[in-house]
């Protein structure tokens, strides 16, 4: 055999071709054996094949057959796996070179051989597949080949082959090889699409580990086209895998599945690799990148955790960065907005139950990125910050922060901002490499964004501190750097920042030292804010570094989250050091007592909290306060007044300023003293002697004596003693007025604090309460003068200065005034109860405090910052106010006299309304707790969670009864203010009801009944009641039918625009009458706007669906059939809406807001109709003849009912304005005023009128297009309007010209007459 090989090679090298051909005439078997042996030994095989080809010329049939035999033998030989790789490669290379010499029939046989081998799965190693493309290319060049009984061109034959190949079953092993092979095959676009679909279907049959190389090959293949299909397929595959994996995890726990079909970590690693491949491909092929992004621009419904990760990785390519983040931000905010829209409307919930949550996907991506997705983490950080920057709170006017730190993200923008924070926090916890960057960026923003609010960054920073304090200590240098900027930052930022780092200070000495140095410098800052920051910081330190032996005051709950760090402060550095440290801080703080009022104020407000947390500092704090108070105290017992007001003010030029907030100083001293006495009493019931005790007793008794003396002398002091009497000047324009104002506020504050102190000290003794009333009378007299004088100024300001009573005291006071029935206290309390002014003052202060809580989230005075205690006081006040309102009817207390001021019942109601709204905003999860404490029935039964809803409904019924009583009394008895408050309370409470519950249905039927039966002519009340009805109705079902009835009522009340037409009298809702019709019209139109919003949203949803359906052609017809309910619902909504608007357009509305709004809504309605028509144009393009009969009806309705009426309404609106101008001559002056007003309105309206006309014409323009597309004549329903006819009428022109020759007067009368004529024509 060896000889054969050598002989073949030698002969082929010589020139005698004939001899060589003769030698090669041995049988096929011998030939194949020669090749096999040569190949197995790996020697000279290339030379052998070359020689054989040389010896078998392709022009003879014998030669071609021989060549074909070599091919047929070599291909399986290479696939067998017996050959060395290089040898196989050599053989294939040689065969490729000679392919084009084979004749057509041989090529056809060869191609069929390949196809058969692939079908039966013999192409395992895929080595010989490289030859297939060459064969196919050669084939397509052939002229004609026999196929079956006829013949085909080579190109057609190739198509048949590819078709049969893609339709057959592929062995999973050779999918990758085949995909690689097809890269070299010239394919038409249909063939490519067919092939890509086949490969994508094979994904599920492959092992996970084989997916990345296959994706790589597919991406290379996508250079030929089908980019969108390839990307969609890959993303879709991973979306399904993720979903399956999640399912398994959910059910795995319940089914005890030991084996997962997809191990999570493996799946994530594969996803990571695939993402890298795709990003790499996009870097090289920008067309692919464009296709990828275009995919998500239409709708966010296609997003999934995998595609989010992919987008974030693509964002690392600079040219796509901005696009990707804009796209993601847009998707997030749109998702939140859609969710909000759906939650607010039962109609939409019924039509589209599911909702795709982009925020969940993004958080899933963060979770998944743990598996080594470093290429995604950078994008996540960027996304987090761009969300927080874009959607964080915005500065209000003059750079003020608008919202107090609201606890709950309600609006879509707030939710998006919160999502950004969650992404960063989770990222910080999971990925070490990005921690430094996140921290640095957060701190940078805190320092640089001084103009806008930074609460969201503060929240994030404090979450980071709580979740990973030890990690933060590693980069404490960054925190120290931030401290250097403290004195330049806004006060709120400083407070938030220090509160956030507070847990770290206990663990890290260096941080604490750095902070103290900064605060000491800030103490001497030239900026007022800098000094305030220093006070804030020092107070915070005092609160949190406990001196050992401080009473563990059980009442003071520790607000700060230091419990996260289990460090016993005292074991690290002893309490002596702590004490020294605290005393040193106190000495720094004493310097503030010589600074501006604002700085002192902060100090006084902070001392009480410090004392409660760190009671060992009591003597130092008390002595500081005491010595400060002595400066303003008149020690001579006979002198009046007992306080010196002169040193409390300072003058600068001709301006007078407050220097010492004396009332606050007194308040702080009193509260600290009371708290200490309380603590001592509970800690040592039996007195023990010690020096310290004596020292404390010393200043305590001295202070008490001082307070008694001040009280005694303040009762005797007349207003003249303070230079404040009725004749004094209080205008804020002059320095004297300002000084008197400051004095008055200080004196009133002192009176208030003495009232609180004496109430607590009185222990329900009658004589002490009489003294208290004396104090109150003095206070009241002064506050009345102040009110009266400030009211006389140009701007009456009824704003009473903020009360200094503490929330706890007010809550106690209300309880004893209204609910305390203890026999022994009866006599003393009657002193207070008999004074109507005092009771009223107490309720007023309560309302004021609750309002402050609602706006800022905390109140002044002790415990104001402590949310738990604040909530407890709220509960107490609620039950008292509720009891007072329900048990004493307002009719009794007014005593027949009609007062201007609101009655006590009204105040109680206002208080309740404010409490409910505050609770819903600030403590949303505690609402049921608040309601359950309200009803303290005789047997004190505690309700459980199960009947929280029942409880809520019980109160709703109480307030319903109260409102019903109001309404059944008749118009004279009716108190509009009270009724409005009741409606507002019902609105707040009904938000707690679940829309599916029985109670909700009862609530809505009750509201409808009241609206139908109440006929009071009070527009403010009717506005509140109808707003309540709409807000409930939207959650129950679509409000269009309700709107139609209301429009009919308005029409019948106000009459028709054509005075000759008699409107059919109908009244569905008695609440609509002549007085309230305009208000009701505006409310109805705002609801119309809302309905149009929903319809627009649905059309947009359908449009994006139709767009994605056309790309997947098979499903299009079927989904159109299925999705019909949405189209039907939209058409019905618009139909009812058009009927309702048809009623309004014929109504003689008063010129003004309602006319303008109606015109605006009309143009909006036509715009929505146009959008719907455009949608159907799109549908008709993809499915001809798909125009529903319902749409035709809708078009007919708009053409016959609405458009003509619109034009007559426009004429009416214009003529209505003119006729106002032509009023009676006697009222000349009035007419001029009306005229200017009318012309101003006309200017406003003229803009609305062209808008309506333009939108009608746009609508008709697209109707023409749709008529052409759908072959249905929709324009037969449209009548061209006459009022749009701008041709010049020659006859009337002549007539006018002739008139002008006549007298002036006739001309004038003609002009005034003209609009009316126009109207009659109509």
Automatic annotation (TrEMBL):
All copies of domain FANCI helical, residue ranges: 287-368, 553-787
Biological process (GO), any one: DNA repair
Domain named FANCI solenoid: residues: 65-282, 376-539, 804-1029, 1043-1294
Region (Disordered): 1297-1322
CDD domains, per the entry: FANCI (cd11720)
Molecular function in Gene Ontology: DNA polymerase binding
InterPro entries in alphabetical order: FANCI, FANCI_HD1, FANCI_HD2, FANCI_S1, FANCI_S1-cap, FANCI_S2, FANCI_S3, FANCI_S4
Domain FANCI solenoid 1 cap: 5-55
Bias type Polar residues, positions: 1300-1309
Any Pfam family: FANCI_S1-cap
PANTHER family: BC025462 PROTEIN (PTHR21818), FANCONI ANEMIA GROUP I PROTEIN (PTHR21818:SF0)
Protein name stated in the entry: FA complementation group I
Organism listed in the record: Eleginops maclovinus
């Amino acid at each position: 055999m060896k000889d054969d090989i050598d002989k073949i090679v030698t002969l082929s090298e010589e020139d005698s071709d004939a001899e060589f051909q003769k030698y090669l005439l041995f049988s096929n078997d011998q030939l194949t054996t020669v090749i096999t042996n040569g190949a197995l030994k790996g020697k000279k095989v290339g030379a052998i094949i070359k020689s054989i080809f040389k010896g078998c010329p392709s022009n003879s049939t014998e030669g071609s057959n021989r060549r074909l035999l070599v091919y047929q033998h070599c291909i399986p030989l290479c696939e067998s796996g017996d050959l060395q790789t290089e040898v196989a490669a050599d053989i294939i290379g040689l065969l490729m070179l000679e392919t084009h010499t084979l004749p057509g029939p041989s090529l056809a046989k060869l191609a069929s051989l390949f196809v058969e081998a692939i079908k039966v799965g013999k192409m395992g190693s895929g080595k010989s597949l490289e030859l297939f493309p060459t064969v196919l290319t050669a084939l397509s060049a052939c002229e004609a080949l026999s196929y079956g009984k006829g013949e085909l061109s080579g190109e057609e034959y190739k198509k048949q082959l590819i078709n049969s190949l893609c339709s057959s079953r592929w062995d999973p092993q050779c999918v990758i090889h085949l995909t690689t092979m097809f890269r070299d095959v010239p394919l038409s676009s249909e063939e490519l699409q067919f092939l890509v679909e086949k490969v994508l279907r094979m994904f599920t049959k492959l092992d996970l580990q084989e997916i990345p190389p296959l994706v790589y090959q597919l991406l290379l293949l996508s250079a030929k086209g089908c980019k969108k299909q390839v990307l969609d397929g890959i993303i879709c595959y991973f979306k399904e895998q993720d979903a399956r994996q999640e399912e398994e995890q959910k059910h795995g726990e319940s089914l005890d599945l030991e084996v997962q079909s997809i191990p999570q970590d493996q799946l994530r690693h594969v996803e990571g690799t695939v993402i890298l491949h795709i990003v790499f491909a996009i870097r090289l092929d920008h067309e692919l990148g464009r296709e990828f992004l275009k995919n998500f621009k239409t709708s966010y419904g296609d997003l999934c955790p995998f595609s989010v990760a992919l987008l974030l990785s693509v964002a690392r390519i600079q040219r796509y960065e901005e696009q990707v983040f804009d796209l993601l931000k847009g998707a997030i905010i749109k998702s939140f907005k859609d969710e909000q829209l759906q939650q607010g409307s039962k109609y939409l919930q019924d039509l589209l139950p599911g909702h795709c949550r982009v925020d969940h996907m993004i958080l899933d991506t963060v979770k998944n990125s743990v598996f080594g997705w470093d290429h995604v983490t950078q994008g996540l950080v960027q996304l987090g910050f761009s969300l927080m920057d874009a959607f964080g709170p915005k500065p209000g006017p003059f750079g003020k922060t608008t919202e107090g730190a609201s606890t709950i993200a309600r609006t879509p923008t707030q939710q998006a901002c919160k999502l950004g924070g969650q992404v960063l926090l989770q990222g910080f916890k999971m990925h070490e490499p990005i921690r430094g960057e996140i921290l640095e960026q957060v701190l940078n923003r805190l320092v640089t964004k001084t103009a806008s609010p930074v609460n969201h960054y503060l929240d994030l920073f404090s979450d980071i501190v709580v979740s990973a304090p030890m990690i933060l200590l590693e980069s404490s240098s960054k925190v120290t750097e931030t401290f250097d900027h403290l004195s330049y930052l806004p006060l709120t930022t400083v407070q938030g920042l220090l509160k956030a780092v507070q847990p770290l200070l206990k663990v890290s000495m260096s941080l604490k030292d750095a902070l103290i140095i900064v605060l000491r410098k800030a103490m001497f800052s030239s900026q007022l804010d800098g000094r305030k920051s220093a006070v804030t910081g020092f107070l915070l330190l005092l609160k949190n570094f406990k001196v050992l032996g401080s009473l563990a005051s059980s009442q003071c709950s520790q607000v700060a989250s230091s419990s996260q760090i289990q460090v016993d402060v005292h074991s690290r550095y002893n309490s002596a050091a702590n004490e020294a440290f605290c005393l040193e801080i106190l000495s720094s703080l004493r310097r503030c007592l010589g600074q501006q009022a604002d700085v002192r104020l902060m100090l006084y407000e902070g001392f009480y909290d410090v004392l409660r947390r760190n009671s060992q500092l009591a003597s130092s704090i008390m002595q500081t306060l005491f010595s400060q108070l002595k400066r303003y105290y008149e020690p001579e017992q006979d002198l009046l007044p007992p306080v010196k007001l002169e040193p409390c003010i300072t003058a600068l030029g001709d301006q007078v300023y407050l220097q010492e907030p004396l009332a606050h100083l007194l308040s702080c001293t009193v509260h600290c003293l009371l708290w200490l006495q309380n603590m001592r009493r509970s800690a040592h019931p039996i007195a023990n002697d010690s020096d310290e005790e004596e020292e404390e007793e010393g200043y305590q008794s001295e202070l008490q004596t001082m307070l008694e003396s001040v009280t005694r002398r303040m009762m005797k002091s007349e207003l003249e003693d303070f230079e404040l009497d009725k004749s004094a000047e209080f205008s804020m324009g002059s320095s004297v007025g300002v000084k008197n104002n400051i004095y008055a506020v200080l004196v009133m504050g002192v009176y208030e604090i003495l009232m609180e102190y004496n109430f607590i000290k009185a222990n329900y003794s009658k004589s002490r309460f009489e003294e208290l009333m004396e104090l109150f009378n003095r206070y009241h007299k002064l506050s009345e003068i102040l009110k009266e004088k400030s009211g006389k100024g140009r701007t009456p300001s009824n704003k009473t200065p903020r009360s200094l009573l503490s929330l706890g005291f007010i809550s106690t006071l209300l309880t004893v005034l209204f609910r305390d029935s203890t026999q022994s206290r009866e006599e003393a309390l009657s002193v207070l109860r008999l004074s109507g002014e005092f009771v009223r003052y107490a309720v007023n202060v309560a309302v004021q405090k609750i309002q402050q809580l609602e706006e800022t989230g905390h109140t002044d005075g002790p415990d104001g910052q402590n949310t738990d205690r604040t909530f407890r006081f709220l509960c107490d006040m609620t039950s008292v106010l509720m009891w007072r309102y329900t048990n004493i009817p307002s009719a009794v207390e007014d005593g027949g006299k009609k007062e201007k001021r609101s009655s006590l019942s009204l105040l109680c109601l206002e208080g309740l309304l404010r409490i409910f709204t505050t609770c819903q905003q600030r403590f949303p999860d505690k609402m049921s707790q608040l309601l359950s404490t309200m009803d303290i029935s005789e047997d004190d039964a505690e309700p459980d969670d199960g009947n929280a809803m029942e409880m809520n409904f019980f109160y709703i019924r109480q307030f319903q009864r109260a409102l019903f009583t109001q309404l059944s009394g008749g118009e004279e008895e009716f108190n509009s203010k009270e009724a409005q408050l009741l409606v507002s309370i019902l609105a707040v409470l009904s938000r707690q009801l679940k829309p599916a519950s029985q109670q909700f249905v009862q609530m809505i039927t009750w509201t409808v009944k009241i609206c139908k039966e109440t006929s009071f002519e009070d527009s403010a009340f009717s506005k509140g009641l109808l707003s309540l009805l709409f807000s409930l109705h939207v959650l129950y079902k679509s409000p269009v039918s309700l709107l139609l009835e209301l429009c009919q009522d308005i029409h019948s009340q106000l009459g028709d625009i054509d005075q000759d037409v008699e409107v059919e009298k109908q009244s569905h809702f008695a609440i609509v009458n002549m007085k309230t019709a305009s208000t009701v019209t505006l409310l109805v139109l705002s609801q119309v706007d809302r309905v149009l919003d929903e319809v627009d949203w649905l059309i947009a949803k359908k449009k994006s669906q139709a767009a994605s359906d056309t790309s997947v052609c098979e499903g299009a017809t079927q989904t159109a059939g299925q999705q019909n309910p949405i189209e039907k619902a939209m058409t019905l909504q618009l139909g009812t809406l058009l009927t309702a608007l048809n009623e309004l357009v014929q109504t003689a509305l008063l010129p003004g807001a309602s006319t303008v709004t109606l015109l605006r809504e009309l143009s909006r309605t036509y715009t929505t109709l146009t959008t719907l028509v455009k949608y159907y144009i799109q549908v008709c393009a993809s499915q001809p003849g798909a125009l529903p009969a319902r749409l035709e009806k809708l078009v007919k309705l708009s053409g016959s009912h609405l458009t003509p009426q619109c034009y007559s309404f426009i004429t009416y609106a214009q003529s209505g304005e003119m006729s106002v101008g032509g009023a009676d001559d006697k009222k000349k002056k009035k007419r001029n005023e009306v005229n200017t007003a009318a012309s101003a309105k006309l200017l406003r309206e003229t803009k609305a009128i062209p808008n309506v006309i333009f939108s009608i014409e746009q609508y008709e323009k697209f109707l023409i297009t749709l008529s052409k597309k759908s072959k249905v004549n929709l324009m037969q329903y449209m009548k061209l309007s006459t009022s749009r006819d701008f041709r010049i009428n020659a006859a009337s022109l002549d007539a006018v010209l002739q008139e002008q020759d006549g007298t002036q007067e006739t001309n004038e009368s003609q002009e005034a007459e003209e609009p009316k004529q126009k109207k009659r024509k109509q």
